[in-house]
Specification:
With 586 residues, the protein is α/β, with parallel strands linked by helices. The protein has helices at 2-15, 24-60, 64-112, 116-122, 130-172, 187-207, 210-233, 235-240, 244-296, 302-319, 321-324, 326-350, 352-355, 409-417, 449-454, 464-473, 477-480, 489-492, 495-509, 525-538; strands spanning 175-177, 180-182, 360-364, 370-378, 384-388, 391-393, 398-402, 423-430, 435-438, 447-448, 486-487, 513-517, 543-547, 559-566, 569-574. The radius of gyration is 35 Å and the shape is elongated.
């Protein structure tokens, strides 16, 4: 019971924000219409139940006129039920897509807000494969919540509607055993209740493991799909290393978890299906067995028996909702658990500063310099990595940061960018300053090349001639004629071409502070020199901070900072810091 209440609390927390959102009136209206149609369909079932009595009584009495009348009544009921069923499906699907659209937009916003998606990875969160949770799990949650919720509502209304009918029929058709009438008020209702309780208890006992099995199945499927995507994204490196055999074995190992868990689901589902099918088949004949003695004793007519059997089936079916829907409920609970895990992971990452020591970012309007005050950058496990105190990067300065691999240079850049929270101290950034980070491997969204170059600006933020000029300036005149071409540019272009386009992006955005994390490492030295001269020419007021290992980079920077190891931590130490102008020699 505790697990059920916890699941319902999570469902309420996930579902209710939509019905309080800006789309609440459309959502509430559609939900109200669907509920009204569901109740109308139950009313149709009640009318059909009463019709059965009159119809079969007309057959038994050979009453042709009554028979014809009941046929016309049935046609009217049938057409009404068909119309209601059609619009129930239509409005239900309309509600599903609006609810899913809002929930997807909400989750995307939470996931992508303030580098939360990045921090979730750093923390090693439990929310595996966020892509699946935002797509498949959201879709299934909306769909199954409506199906199960409306099904439960229909069962409750059906129960009360037909229980009253069945109670009256119990008195009209008393329990007839061994030639004696046993007057037990509402005995058919009590038998239906006992039958349903018995079936529900056994169903839960047999099917309870399906909740965890379905949860694991979704996780294994998503993990296998994610690794397939990684192979596709890294196909060149795999081909160069002749790693196809290793990848095949690794992927088959992942797939073996899918297969093994599926066999466990098959075994458990077989047992559950065997019981539920037996239960449902027995429910078909069971009411006739109960009232047949009264019929053959001529206590009731054929119409009374058919109406009683129909009412009993309706009551028993309503009480047996959990028996029939158990597998769907198990899948639904696993989906709810996955969305709950995703929400908790997003919340933990988004509120990281509230839970542990983090680096403080300060904005100042009195200085154009970036300052590091008592800064200590940690790894996610708490190990100190980089320390800096009283260190400043002056406006319009050209700074080269060097040091051994693993000394924390890139991590320091991430901390300045505000996406690395692990550590203590503060970083002072000039208010309204535009910072741009160019990593060694730039990111280009799939789509038109022109849109990929200006990312993260929206399409249309820059005129096509300006984009073309920037692409030509970084040495890619052929690509300048392909700005409207769609493609997966991270796969189609060499790393050197990607780095050139990254610098074209910087030329377009004109940042106040440009951080280059080995952003030209794949270029030859003459090309690298030409691009640094281009940055000096096009971005004369920008502060440029570079990470690099080539000694040729010294000529393009006015200050050199070296990461020096001091025990278990690296500290920033100025190297050649004499004021000079970056050379134009390449």
């Amino acid at each position: 019971m505790k697990n059920i209440s916890a699941t319902l609390a999570i469902v309420w927390r996930i579902a209710i924000p939509y019905f309080r959102s800006e789309d609440k009136w459309a959502g509430r209206g559609l939900l109200g219409a669907v509920i009204a149609i569901e109740l109308a369909l139950v009313a149709i079932d009640v009318l059909v139940n009463q019709w059965q009595n009159r119809f079969y009584s007309a057959l038994q009495n050979n009453d042709w006129d009554a028979f014809v009348t009941q046929i016309w009544i049935f046609i009217a009921l049938a057409f009404t039920a068909i119309a209601l069923a059609v619009y129930k499906l239509y409005l239900n699907q309309w509600l599903q897509i609006r609810w899913r659209q809002w929930l997807t937009t909400h989750y995307l916003g939470e996931w992508l807000e303030g580098a939360t998606h990045y921090r979730m990875q750093l923390k090693g969160d439990a929310a595996d494969n966020p892509d699946q949770r935002i797509t498949e799990d959201v879709k299934n949650f909306v769909e199954q919540t409506l199906v199960i919720g409306l099904g439960l509502l229909s069962s409750i209304v059906t129960l009360f509607s037909f229980a009253l009918i069945l109670w009256g029929l119990s008195n009209a058709a008393p329990l007839h055993l061994f030639g004696t009438d046993l007057m037990i008020p509402g005995y058919l209702c009590w038998i239906a209740l006992i039958y349903a309780i018995f079936g529900t208890a056994l169903t839960h006992w047999i099917g309870a493991p399906l909740v965890n099995l379905n949860f694991e199945q979704q996780r294994y499927e998503a993990d296998f799909r994610f690794n397939l995507v990684r192979v596709r994204e890294n196909s060149e490196q795999i081909a160069l290393l002749k790693g196809e055999g290793a990848e095949r074995g690794r992927l088959l190992d992942r797939f073996s978890f899918v297969i093994g868990n599926w066999y466990a689901i098959m075994s458990r589902t077989k047992r559950l299906s065997a019981f539920t099918n037996s239960y449902q088949q027995a429910a078909v004949i069971f009411p006739y067995v109960l009232v047949a003695p009264a019929f053959f004793a001529k206590k009731i007519q054929l119409g009374d028996m058919m109406q009683t059997a129909s009412a009993f089936s309706s009551v028993q079916g309503a009480l047996s909702f959990f028996v029939v829907a158990y597998r769907s409920l198990a899948e639904w609970r696993s989906i709810v658990a996955r969305l709950d895990g995703f929400e908790m992971s997003v919340d933990t990452a988004a509120n990281l500063p509230a839970h542990e020591a983090t680096i403080e970012l300060k904005a100042t309007g009195g200085s154009r310099n970036i300052g590091l005050d008592k800064l200590c950058v940690y790894l996610p496990n708490g190990t100190p990595l980089v320390a800096a105190d009283g260190f400043a990067i002056q406006a319009s300065e050209r700074v080269l940061v060097t040091g051994p691999s693993g000394s924390g240079k890139s991590t320091l850049f991430r901390a300045i960018a505000g996406i690395w929270p692990f550590g203590t101290g503060s970083i002072v950034i000039p208010a309204q300053a535009k910072l741009m980070m160019l990593p060694q491997r730039p990111y280009f969204p799939v789509g038109a090349l022109g849109h990929a170059v200006i990312y993260p600006a929206a399409p249309g933020a820059f005129q096509a001639p300006r984009i073309r000029d920037a692409v030509i300036a970084v040495g890619l005149p052929d690509l300048a004629e392909r700005l409207n071409e769609e493609g997966h540019w991270n796969r189609m272009l060499s790393l050197g071409e990607q780095q050139r386009l990254g610098l074209a992006r910087a030329l377009l955005h004109v940042p106040d502070y440009l951080f280059l994390d080995e952003a030209t490492a794949s270029l030859d030295e003459p090309s690298e020199a030409r691009l640094y001269r281009l940055l000096t020419e096009k971005l004369p007021q920008a502060t440029i901070v570079s990470i690099g290992h080539r000694s040729t980079l010294d000529a393009f920077h006015t200050r050199k900072v070296t990461m020096v190891k001091d025990g278990a931590i690296h500290v920033l130490g100025d190297g050649a810091s004499a004021e000079k102008e970056p050379t134009a020699a390449g």
